[in-house]
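Session log. Operator J.P. requested a structure for one protein chain; no other inputs attached. Running the standard single-chain path with C-alpha cell output.
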Amino acid sequence: MLSQVMGLQGPLKGVRVIDLTQAMAGPMATMTLGDLGAEVIKVEPPSGDQTRSWAPPYINGISSYYLSANRNKKSISIDLKKPDGVAILKKLLLSSDIIIENFRPGTMEKLGISYEEISAINPRIIYCSLSGYGQTGPAREWPGYDLTVLAYSGLLSLNAEEGRPPIKFGVPIADITAGLFAAISILSALYSRSYTGEGQYIDLSMLDANFSILTHQAMSYFATGKNPKHLGSAHASISPYQVFPTADGYIAMAVGTEKLWATFCKVVGREDLLEDPRYRTNMERVRNRELLAGEITKTFSAFNTGELFRKLLDSGIPATPINTVEDAIKSDQVKERNMVTEIDSPYGRIPLLNTPFRLSKTPGSVRLHPPALGENSIEILSAAGFSREEIEKFIKDGTVIASNGTDA
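Structure written below.
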C-alpha cells in the first residue's frame, strides 16, 4: 500500500482517506486526519482545488490560502466526468477506509459514486458528505460558504456591537468548525467500525455544526424569549469580561469570580468599587455592565498596556494584550510550543503552522508539503495496480493530470 511507501506515523497510521473536497471545510477535516497519520489522497479536478487561485498573497508562487489547509496530503488530478476517471476512483476506494466529499447534494449520485454504490463494493467504507445545509430539507441545494452559513446559523448576528452591523470573524470559522466536526464524526465512525466491522454514511452539515455552537446563546433565548444583545467583546453573563482601551492600546481581561473581582479592584486602586452596591456581585455587575465599563476605561487610561498587563498577570487575573498575527507568531509561548514550522517542497522551503496534536506516544506531525496539482498522480495509480501503459493512456486522454511537483 501507498501508506507503507509514505512511512506515515501517528495514531491513524495505515488509514487511507480519499479526499474529494475543496475550499476550507473539507480540506481542514482531511488535514486533521493527515496530521494524525492518515494517508490522505487529495483527488482534484483538472482545474485543481479552487483555493489554488485564491490569491494573492503567494508563497513561492503558491496560493498561501491553499497552503494553509493541505499539508500531509498527496495529489492526484482526475476528471470524474469521464468514465475512466470514475473507474479509477472506484478502484482507489476498494482499498480505502474513508471518503469525504463536499459537492452539492445529488452530485455523487449523478457520477455513480454514491454511498450505496461504494458501500456495495466496500462495506467497510466510511463515507462523509460535507455540505452547506445537509442532505435533507428545503435548503439542501443552496450553495453554502462560510459567510452565508454564519449568517443563516445566527452566529453572525452575535458578532456585533450595539448599533453597528455584524462583522465576520477574520478566519472562515464556520468552515473550520464544520471541518473539525467532520473529523470527529469520521473518527467516531472509524472506532465504531473497529467492533462492528461495518462502515457508515455521515451527513455533515455546516449549518448543523455551526448552529450547535450557539450553545449558551441559544439557551439564553430559550430562557428569555429574546435575542441576545449585541455586546461586542463583552460576555453576556460575566462582568468585567471584555476588551478595554488603555493609554496606548487595548487589553483583554476576564474577571470570572468574586475573588478575582476583589483582587482586581485592589490591584488597579479602585477599592471603592467593592463598596458600590451596583457592582457588589457578578449579577449586579452584569446588570450595570456599561456603567462599570466606563469606570474601568477611565481607570485604564492611566496605564500603558504593557504595565497593566504585568500588574494583572502578576495578580492572577486572566489578561493579555491584543496580539497582531505577527505578535502571536513571534511570541515566546508560540515559539516554545513549536507551533510554527517549515518544510521543504519542490517549490522551495515554506513556513507552515504546526499541528496541535501532542499525543505522548503517537503525536501528530507535519510530514508532507501541500502538493502541487497532480504531483503524485503516477505514484498513486502505480500503487493502486494500474500498469504503465494504462497510466500513460489516462494522461494522454486527459483523464488524469500529472505534474513533476513544480507546478502550482
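Operator note: Residues 2-213+336-401 form a domain with the Rossmann fold fold (CATH 3.40.50.10540).
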